[in-house]
Write a structure and sequence with these properties.
The chain has 8 helices and 10 strands. The protein is α/β, with parallel strands linked by helices. The protein folds into 2 domains: about 160 residues, P-loop containing nucleotide triphosphate hydrolases (Rossmann fold, 3-Layer(aba) Sandwich), CATH 3.40.50; about 70 residues, no CATH class. The termini are far apart.
């Protein structure tokens, strides 16, 4: 589904790599957590996967397509929810979702069916025809999620999706993650919430200082406790 091979990325203003030699392989039908403190390299990795950032070394493939060499084919398999609500706020929710659906060549029949389903799930029926600039934080997050799922992507990527959301909204997003994976798709999301990742994910990786530290199978007995112990050790080390 997603293969990252020796990814290295640095910014022009520094000689230090924001992501340094990271390799991961995600399977079909799994929820994969990407854990790290602020500045660990989570968002940089995600922006490389989605093709937003170029990178100096390595290869990333989505469903067999190289993000460097076959960027359009690779991106057609991705649904991306950023951490900063990058939406056109003068559009209504419906206009924005239709704009994204056009980019992915989703038929009118399918987009209408999917949009109505997600509007009901996220309780946005009355808000969808209002301008996004008047939405709350949670509503903006939900319309971004609907737009990311409108083409039923094989790989759904979310960057810190639960920050600032109320418990009901978090529950709705988690349920959609589970349903998406039940269809054989993959969810990859970044977080610094150890408890959420431990409870929700099939596997999780810890990144620290741009380097991959551990990949842990959370379906194995006692590995949830192991994940918490390892992650907290990096958190404590940073605090010192």
């Amino acid at each position: 589904m997603l293969v990252i091979d020796n990814l290295r990325k640095k910014y022009l203003s520094t000689d230090i790599y924001a992501v340094d030699g990271l390799s991961l392989e995600l399977k079909e039908g799994e929820i994969f957590g990407f854990l790290g403190q602020n500045g660990a390299g989570k968002s940089t990795t995600i922006k490389c996967i989605t093709g937003i950032y170029p990178f100096e070394c390595g290869e990333i493939t989505i469903c067999g397509h190289s993000i460097k060499k076959e960027s359009i084919a690779a991106k057609l398999n991705i649904g991306y929810v950023p951490d900063n609500h990058s939406v056109y706020e003068k559009l209504t929710g419906r206009e924005y979702v239709n704009y994204i659906a056009d980019l992915y060549d989703v038929t009118l029949e399918k987009r209408e069916e999917r949009l109505n389903k997600y509007l009901k799930i996220f309780k946005l029926e009355t808000a969808v025809d209002r301008q996004i600039k008047g939405y709350s934080h949670g509503m903006k997050q939900k319309i971004c999620i609907i737009a990311a799922l409108i083409h039923e992507p094989k790989l759904w990527i979310l960057d810190e999706p639960m920050v600032g959301l109320d418990p009901q909204s978090i529950f709705e997003i988690i349920e959609n993650m589970k349903q998406h994976c039940a269809k054989g798709n993959t969810v990859f999301f970044s977080s610094h919430n150890i408890d959420l990742v431990a409870k929700l994910c099939n596997r999780a990786a810890i990144i620290d200082g741009g380097k991959l530290c551990e990949v842990i199978d959370l379906n194995v007995n006692n590995n949830r406790e192991k994940l918490e112990t390892i992650f907290r050790s990096y958190t404590m080390a940073e605090g010192n």
